Amino acid sequence: MRGVVFLGNKKMELGEIPDPKVGKGDVLVRVKASAICGSEMETFVPPTGLPWKGNPGHEVMGILEDPNGSKRFRKGERVGVSTLQGCGNCFWCLQGKQIFCKEVRGIRNAHSEYVVSKEIWLHPLDDDITDAAAVLLSGDGMGVPYGASIRSGVAPGEITCVFGTGPVGLGMTLFQTYLGARVIAVDINPLALERAKQMGAWQTINPKETEDLKAAIWDLTFGLGPNKSFDAISMGNQELFHTMLDVTMPGGTVVTVAHGDHGIDHVRERLSFHLDPAKREIWGRNLTVLGNWMCNFSDWSDMVAMVRNGFQIERIITNQFPIEEAHEAYRRVSEGLEGKVILTQ
To answer: How far apart are CA 341 and CA 63, in angstroms?
Structure first.
């Protein structure tokens, strides 16, 4: 089938990739729209490319091409494809929390003609859910911002601080503003900060334009710090993570969705016992630290309800390209020129 092929070193081509295999319990979906995820830059930019012929695309919706004996779906139905798919039979999958399944796997090669999905992890789409919205709702485009914001309990009147306003941080800014929070967006990309303003950010900070990032955040929060801080930088940053721990209000919450190997520094925590109480990072200030992969399959109805109640999910989409122009789309994303980008077929 036709699909985007990652070649490494910011190069790609639209070529032939292996057809997906349809097994027991699977269905074949003809792709209509897929989204570029910031995590895909981790294999687009380096020279090594991918260990398989294809692409790491995983946010996708389309038309059911082959129901493969399904009793729930018919050929021609519009469906959203859940990015993360579990075995379907374990304790977690039966609760719709497939992200905890020991056999969980991610969709790949979404930027192609077809993808295979387990039937149980498909979302039927009503006519009022557009193709673009379906991609964001089915995958981590909105799944990560939703999961992180809901699990941490973002509430009206709170001040939140989102570190990194790429596609995920942009989604957090839009969603948390919808929830009634005042969002401080932090990024070194002026274009990204401008997009965050358009999503409703209350304040923006460029660390390159301030002498003291912590002081700037405290100044905006009356010396208290934000109620909740969110690490939305794709690969994370240990120094920035400590900044989040330092600035967040006592009793507040720090959430990371980053993929990197940064984490809690136990040495700093041990040494903080001897420091002023205000400098005891986590236990001394009753901080809650959360990790969040994305939302659960079972969150779908609540997410759709928010869209129907006025959450303008498609605002984070800054551009759409036909798949034939995928290279230009990836170039713009890699250079920080776009928020969320959709590829169409």
So the answer is: 20
213-231 pLDDT tens trace: 999 999 999 999 999 999 9
Work out the pLDDT band at 239, boundaries 50, 70, 90. Answer: confident
Letter string b/e over residues 296-315, b meaning 16 or more CB atoms within 10 A of that residue's CB:
bbebbeebbebbeeebebbb
- Asked if residues 113 and 15 have their Cβ atoms less than 8 Å apart, the reply is no
Would you say residue 288 has pLDDT above 80? yes
Torsion of CA 139, 143, 144, 150, to 10 degrees: -170
pLDDT at 286: 87
> Given a cut of 70, is residue 48 above it in pLDDT?
yes
Residue given tokens 């890699």 in the structure block: 334
Three-state SS letters, the chain: CEEEEEEECCEEEEEECCCCCCCCCEEEEEEEEEEECHHHHHHHCCCCCCCCCCCCCCEEEEEEEECCCCCCCCCCCEEEECCEECCCCCCCHHHCCHHHCCCCEECCCCCECEEEEEHHHEEECCCCCCHHHHHHHHCHHHHHHHHHHHHCCCCCCCEEEEECCCHHHHHHHHHHHHCCCEEEEECCCHHHHHHHHHCCCCEEECHHHCCCHHHHHHHHCCCCCCCEEEECCCCCCHHHHHHHHHHCCCCCEEEECCCCCCCCCHHHHHHHHHCCHHHCCCHHHCCEEEECCCCCHHHHHHHHHHHHCCCCHHHHEEEEEEHHHHHHHHHHHHCCCCCEEEEEC
Determine the Cα–Cα distance for residues 329 and 325; give it in Å rounded to an integer: 6
